[in-house]
Design brief:
The chain contains 17 helices and 12 strands. The two termini are 32 Å apart. It has 2 domains: 262 residues, Crotonobetainyl-coa:carnitine coa-transferase, domain 1 (Rossmann fold); 79 residues, 2-Layer Sandwich (formyl-coa transferase, domain 3), CATH 3.30.1540.10. The protein is elongated, with a radius of gyration of 25 Å. With 373 residues, the chain is an alpha/beta fold. The protein has a 3-stranded parallel sheet. Helices cover 40% and strands 13% of the residues. The longest helix has 24 residues. Helix 6 packs across helix 8 and helix 7 packs across helix 8.
Amino acid sequence: MIMGDLGAEVIKVEPPSGDPARHFAGPGHRGEVFYYLAFNRNKKSVVLDLTVDSNRQAFWDLVRISDIVWDNFRPGVIKRLGASFYRLRRINPSIICCSITGYGETGPKRDLPCFDIVGQALSGMMSVTGEPGRPPVRCGPPIGDLAAGMFGVIGVLAALAERQRTGKGQQVNVSLLDSCVSLMSYYFSYYFCSGVTPRPQGSGHLGTAPYGAYKTRDGRWIVTGVNWPRIAQVLGAEWAINDARFQSQQKRAEHKHDLDSILQECFLEADAQQWLDLLDAEGIAVGLVKDVAEAANDEQIISNKMIISLKHALGGKVKLTGNPIKIHRVKQAKYSAPPLLGQHTEEVLKGLLGYPPDKVRKIKEDAQAVAIR
C-alpha cells in the first residue's frame, strides 16, 4: 500500500478464496470488511492460483514486466509455488523480490507460523508495554506487521537504487520478529549498558522524567514530557525545581515516581483544556489523550489529509487513513479504493499482458475449478 501511495502500480495476486484479511469479523463497507479495507487501497486485485499451470504461467508473464515481487509466506512456500527469487531471476534478471516472513530465513523457528502478537512477545515488546504489575499486553496497532512492511519498503527502495547502477535485481528479506527487535532498540541498549531488565513504564520513559500521562480535574488525560523546569513553573510547583531529588536528569529519573505524584496533584486542580492552553502558550509539548472518534475529527489530522474518502466499486465512499509521506507530485486524487476480489483480473491479463479473451477465460476457469475442489 505504501508503494501504491507513492505512485507504483500494484497488482495484488490473490487465490480464489481471497486474501485472508477479507474474512475477518467486524464492520465493513457493503460486505468488504474493515481490516481488508485498511491496508489495500491503490492496488489491483488479480485472482491466480499458482498451483495451476495456466495461472502460474500468467504470474510468470507478469514477472517479466514487473520491477518487484512481494510475498509474505513462510520460507519454502514460495519455492513450492514456482515463485522463488532464483526462479524469477531467470525470467527477469532485474527483478527485485521482497519476502516478509515471521522469523527469517534461518534459525530454529524458520519454518514455524508467526503472528504479530508472537513477534511482540518474543522480542520483549510485550514485557515493557502496559502498567507495572499488570498482565502483559501487546501494542494496540499490529506494530510488528506494520514495521515489517515499512522495513520491506526501505529495503526495496535501496534495491531499486542499487539496480540503477548495476542493472541487476536482488532479494530483500525482512522478518516480523527482527522488525519488533529493531523497534525495541533503546530497551536492548538499556539492558546491555546496565544489566537491568527493563519493565513496564506505563506512559513513562526509561531515561527521562517527567514524561507521561496525567489525569486532570474533568477526568481527561493529557501527556507531556522532557520539559523541566518550565512545567513546574506553569503548574505552580516552582518549589520542586530546587528539590534535591530533581536537580539533574539522572536524579529525576531515579525519583520519577515522586515527581509524577507531585505533578499529578497539580494537574487535578484544573480541567484538561485549561492546562492545554497554558502549556501550549509556553511552547511545552502537550497533547490530549483522544479516542479514535476524536482523532478522526482532529483539525490537525484533517489538515494533514490523513483522513481520505474514496469512491468504492460497490457504490458509496469509504473513509480511510491517508498517506503520511507527502510528495509534491503524488496527489490524493490518484488514490483508488481497495479492490474487490479479482476486480482487475481481465484488465491486467488483457491490458498488461495482451492475452486474448479465450486465454483469460481459461485462466479464470482453471482457478475456479481448483477452488471448487
